[in-house]
Structure formats: structure tokens, C-alpha cells
Amino acid sequence: MTPASRTTGAVTALLVFLGIGLFGQMGWLAALVLAVIAGGMLALTVGWLSDPGSAAMDGSDWDAMPVQPAGQTPRAMARPRENDAPAVARPLATGSKLEGPDDLRAIKGIGPKVQQSLEQAGVTRFSQIAAWDDADVDRMADVIGRAASHIRNDDWVGQARVLAALPQEAG
């Protein structure tokens, strides 16, 4: 409760007590009880109305985990924060199954149709997306028919860096 709401409640209680006690048909005890109830309720109401509340959640503190396709194990997809060290991609082993295309749908914002458009444009690996700069984001946005702002807001490059650094699953 704020000091203003306490003052409002106390003044209301005093006025109700004096009004009912002096000019009403009730006794002083009944007037006192009604005054305390009325003052307390008004103080709580004023305090509730004047409370600014908590800060609005604008989504900047959220790191949602994307939904994994059935049959795949979940991967850590937390978006890197500004103060986190950048992820470094590990070189891939040659001659193994790891040379095939990555499942780009593990990146938040890439669904089956966008993955198909990326593959048609020659993008099949997380390491390719991790190497994009702003010009590449703008160019690929035009090629695949997505807004560059969506690619940046979903942080495809940052997510791809994290995924490229993870050991890939064989099988």
C-alpha cells in the first residue's frame, strides 16, 4: 500500500465514523466497525489502482526451445546472448555419414517449405548459414521469399553457429 492510499483510507474511515456516529441512528461501536471496513476497502482499492505493476514482458528475455520433429533427439537451441562467447564450428569428419545435408528445420523459423527453398538455393548445412553476413541474409531472404527481418529476429545465423558446433548424430 502506498502512503496516499493509507491517507485516503484513514480520512474515509474518520469521515464515516463521524458521519454515522454523530448523525446516524447507530451506536459508536457499529460506526467504528463500518468506518474501519470502508476505510480499509478504499485504501486497498486506491493502492491497487495506483500500482504500476511489473514491467511488461517484450520477449527479449525468452529463449524458446523449438519443437523437434518426431524421432529426433532434442538439441540445445538457446539463442546466444550478447555476452556469451561466440560458438565456433568444428570441422566435419570426412568420409562419414556426416557429409550429408543437415536438418535445417532445427533452426527456429525454418519449416519444411523454407528448408526446401534453401536446399534449392544450395544451402544444406548449418555451417553455411553460420557463415552468413548481413548482405547474405538480405540476398537469401530475396531468394527464398522470406523477410530478412524474420531471419534476423529468429537469429538463424546464431542458431546455426550453435548447431554447427554440436557433434552431429550418426544414423
List the topology elements:
Blueprint: H1 3-23, H2 28-50, H3 112-120, H4 126-130, H5 134-144, H6 148-153, H7 156-165
What's the average pLDDT? Answer: 75
Sheet with the most strands, sense and barrel status: none
**Are there runs of 5+ residues with pLDDT below 50, and where?**
74-97
**For the CA atoms, what is the radius of gyration?**
31 Å
> Architecture of one domain, CATH level 2?
Orthogonal Bundle
Portion of residues within helices:
40-55%
Based on secondary structure, the structural category is mainly alpha
Query: What's the CATH class of one domain, please?
Result: Mainly Alpha
- What gap, in angstroms, lies between the N and C termini? 61 Å
Give me the strand/helix succession. HHHHHHH
**Apparent shape:** rod-shaped
Question: And the CATH topology of one domain?
Answer: DNA polymerase, domain 1
Number of helices: 7
Question: What's the β-strand tally?
Answer: 0
